[in-house]
């Protein structure tokens, strides 16, 4: 068999093999399909100027424009505004079908904690079952869960002058554990997710024993803010570390992976604290808990690969860089993932959210980048065809299927 035949076979597998999207978010509902600026598809930037003027001049936007124009049959010279206008003219059902069918996504694991006050504008995770051949599963965001518990306790007890800070702390700790156990027992829940990277950084102090006095003081502060403004956000390091440690303990009991947002995000992140290297003490403290480093940990991909290579319980997701990075950037990240990380510990995701186009671009760009990197290795005689195909099947389906205990069989077209 000559090399061109090998590459044709590799291409066939890469672009058609079914995938498990191990980290994504819900679609906007039809009535709210235009609730957010569409430029959020190609950038995490915030602010009118950053979205409307800066983002549209990135390599990510240029490429997305070309690919979506091709999908919509608009011709090679269509611009970003033409793409936006055309998508708005399509029925939502038609748009979803056009984007999802060529993505070849068999199962989606949805973190349904995204949205905050706008969560009502999103579909429930089960709605997405119509888009795939295997049922959608949930990833429970632990900070959102903890905030919901605190909000409920405050609403119940603020008016009761007999409730002491100590009682509030004890009630919160009890309800947090009870809720995490309930989530872990739910067959639709296949893992937990932490956004502590956004809140206080990844330098999590290991251990779930928190000074009672400290926790009481912090919760009193949250109560006062909640009473004055009606808002609640866990953004204190001691409380956030406590929540993550409790989740890590319970996740190990049920063999549920814990996903961590690492690296690439919006301007709410302290970049230097988003490196997964800060998680090393937590990784060591919970050797029985599976830890999934999300978003390629970009720009700290090599650090993530190192952790994945030396710790049995660490796995690496190479998502979100599609479509946020340029084509060269995507290929370089894939190369860095493959530098050191065992190929039975890497997983793909779209980080798709709000728009069906995010799932489409997240799939076709990832497949293209993977093909181009593996093609180069085959041409250099660094990989055989069976080895390359094995990497593809593990990265897009088999690893997530095993790590999240999904029990699926690939449904090839």
Describe the model.
This protein is α/β, with parallel strands linked by helices and 413 residues long. The protein has a single domain, classed as Metal-dependent hydrolases (TIM Barrel, Alpha-Beta Barrel). It contains 16 helices and eight strands. The chain has helices at residues 3-16, 48-54, 59-71, 80-89, 92-100, 142-157, 165-185, 196-199, 212-229, 237-254, 280-285, 301-310, 321-324, 327-340, 356-379, 385-403; strands spanning 19-24, 105-111, 137-141, 189-194, 258-260, 291-293, 314-317, 346-347. It has an eight-stranded parallel sheet with strand order 1-2-3-4-5-6-7-8. Strand 6, helix 12 and strand 7 (314-317) form a beta-alpha-beta unit. Helix 1 (3-16) packs antiparallel against helix 15 and helix 5 packs parallel to helix 15. The mean pLDDT is 93. This is Amidohydrolase-domain-containing protein. InterPro entries: Amidohydro-rel, Metal_Hydrolase. Pfam families: Amidohydro_2. Keywords: Hydrolase. Residues 247-406 form the Amidohydrolase-related domain.
Brief description of this entry?
The chain is of the alpha/beta class and 413 residues long. It has one domain (3-31, 43-403): TIM Barrel (Alpha-Beta Barrel). It is 50% helix and 9% strand.
């Amino acid at each position: 068999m000559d090399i061109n035949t090998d590459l044709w076979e590799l291409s066939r597998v890469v672009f058609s093999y079914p995938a498990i999207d191990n980290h994504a978010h819900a679609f906007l509902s039809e009535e709210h399909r235009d609730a957010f600026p569409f430029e959020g598809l190609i950038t995490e930037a915030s602010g009118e100027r950053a979205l409307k003027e800066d983002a549209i001049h990135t390599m990510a936007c240029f490429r997305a424009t070309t690919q979506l124009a091709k999908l919509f049959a608009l011709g090679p010279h269509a611009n970003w505004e033409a793409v936006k206008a055309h998508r708005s003219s399509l029925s939502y059902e038609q748009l979803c079908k056009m984007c999802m069918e060529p993505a070849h996504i068999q199962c989606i694991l949805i973190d349904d904690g995204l949205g905050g006050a706008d969560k009502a504008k999103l579909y429930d995770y089960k709605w997405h079952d119509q888009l795939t051949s295997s049922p959608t599963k949930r990833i429970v965001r632990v900070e959102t869960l903890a905030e919901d518990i605190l909000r409920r306790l405050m609403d119940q007890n603020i008016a009761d002058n007999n409730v002491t800070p100590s009682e509030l702390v004890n009630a919160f700790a009890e309800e947090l554990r009870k809720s995490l156990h309930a989530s872990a027992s739910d067959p639709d829940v296949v893992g937990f997710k932490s956004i502590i990277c956004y809140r206080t950084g990844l330098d999590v102090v290991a251990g779930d024993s928190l000074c009672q006095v400290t926790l009481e003081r912090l919760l009193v502060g949250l109560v006062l803010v909640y009473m004055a403004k009606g808002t609640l956000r866990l953004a204190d390091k001691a409380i956030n570390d406590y929540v993550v440690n409790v989740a890590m303990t319970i996740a190990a009991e049920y063999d549920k992976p814990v996903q961590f947002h690492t690296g690439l995000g919006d301007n709410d992140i302290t970049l230097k604290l988003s490196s997964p290297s800060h998680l090393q003490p937590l990784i060591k403290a919970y050797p029985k808990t599976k830890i999934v480093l999300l978003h390629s940990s970009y720009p700290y991909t090599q650090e993530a690969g190192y952790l994945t290579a030396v710790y049995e319980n660490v796995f690496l997701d190479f998502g979100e860089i599609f479509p946020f990075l340029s084509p060269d950037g995507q290929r370089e990240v894939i190369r860095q993932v493959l530098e050191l990380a065992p190929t039975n510990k890497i997983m793909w995701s779209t980080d798709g959210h709000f728009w069906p186009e995010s799932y489409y671009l997240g799939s076709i760009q990832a497949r293209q980048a993977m093909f181009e990197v593996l093609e180069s290795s085959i041409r250099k005689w660094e990989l055989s065809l069976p080895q390359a195909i094995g990497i593809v099947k593990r990265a897009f389906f088999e690893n997530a299927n095993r790590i999240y205990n999904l029990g699926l069989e690939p449904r090839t077209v």
